[in-house]
Description:
The protein is α/β, with parallel strands linked by helices and about 70 residues long. It has helices at about 15-25, 45-50, and strands at about 1-5, 30-35, 55-60. The protein has one domain. The termini are far apart.
Amino acid sequence: MKVLHLIDHFGLGGAQAQLLDLLETRGPQIDATVWTLRDVALPSAVERLRSTRVPYRTLALSKRSPLG
């Protein structure tokens, strides 16, 4: 099963921590990808994300962008 996770950013927050926990415990049948709207990330969050080997991309939208 393919799953796309879309989140605002990987800064400090409960949703970010919850998504990282979910990615770390996913089963092998889940093919996950993560996209963020903004290019904001804590180094510790990026390190955890890399350890999951889940592809990670950002749209790098401004906080003031109407698209975000």
